[in-house]
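Many introductory courses stop at the sequence. We go one step further.
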Amino acid sequence: MEVKSFRKAGHFPSLVSAFLYFDVSFMIWVMCGALSLYITKDFGLTASQKALMVAIPTLGGAFFRIPMGILADRIGSKKAGMIGMVLTYIPLLWGWLGGTTLNQIHMLGFLLGIAGASFAVSLSLASRWYPPQYQGLAMGIAGAGNSGTALATFFGPQLAAAYGWHNVFGMALLPLTIVMVTYLIMAKDSPNQPEPKKFSDYLQMLKYGDTWWFCFFYSITFGGFVGFASYLSIFLFDQYGETAVPGGITKVQVGYLVTLTVIAGSFVRPIGGYIADKIGGMRFLLVLFGFISVLLYFLSSLPSLGLATALFVLTMICLGMGNGSIFQIVPQRFPKEIGVVTGIVGAAGGLGGFALPFLLGYIREMTGTFSTGFIVIGSIVAVATFLFYSRSISWRRSWATAETGVNY
């Protein structure tokens, strides 16, 4: 595939806009996780309370993604994106000027989910501009905006150590404003924008079994990615930090390690979409699910910091490529309803991102170790692998065709 032909196939400025919107929104969405070691210190939280605090923004993202997907279908992705960015100012101002109680942190964290809802808008903006043979790559490039997580985990701890975590929320207003202006200038809705439907029509998507299956599988890949991105700081510091073991890593060093894993998972998303375009999303996802399960079982042994970091990097790579692969398949199954389906499936991904840290934190508090939690999550992925294999056989016999590239 030539780069020139890909660029001519769609509207590249809109694709860039989708990436930037997604990128800055993800940076903001995971700020509670990136700043968790500083926020939790102020409030003296237990293991389960820490997990809940970093998980609530992903729950908010799950809640807001469906209405944002509907909004993108009804008024266009450009207007929906502008609305999302304006509303994101609210939790950032609250975190900067308020956030003095745990309840406030929970509430502003839930509102940070508005930024997480950018997923339903940015991917629909990108998808509608590109034909089926480029869907995996286009969606992967736009979806690589989850690299914004790396910006939060890298700069967040350093800025919090220097200026306090409240001020980091205020500093995030600057990149948000820059991206909002850029988006306003560059983004353009595709002429393939579908006609607005009745709200009841969107609910009809829930009657399709494939919608629910996509939700489940995406809760594994995307839920795993955002869940680990949010909770990994807590895990690494509690397991390998300076307060846990002699000579352990500092909070800022934890941020560096989390950034490494997030970058690994973020920028491979387009690669995952590209490979899915070439060899088929179903075949590729089956392999990825299997690898993820095995890697989580290895992590349950709680190995040395170096080996654990390497295993997390590989896990996030698989999760990132899995995200790109799933959204190589979804537009082929629901080409006319991509906005609302993206919202529904994305919401499920957010729920997965909420469940993962909550499970790890709760099980750690109950058992006193992270090991059991990784075994439980690895087993869930193992079950998902067998279920995906079963569904892929059914899909090949029904809606998948050779032209879509998903029936391999």
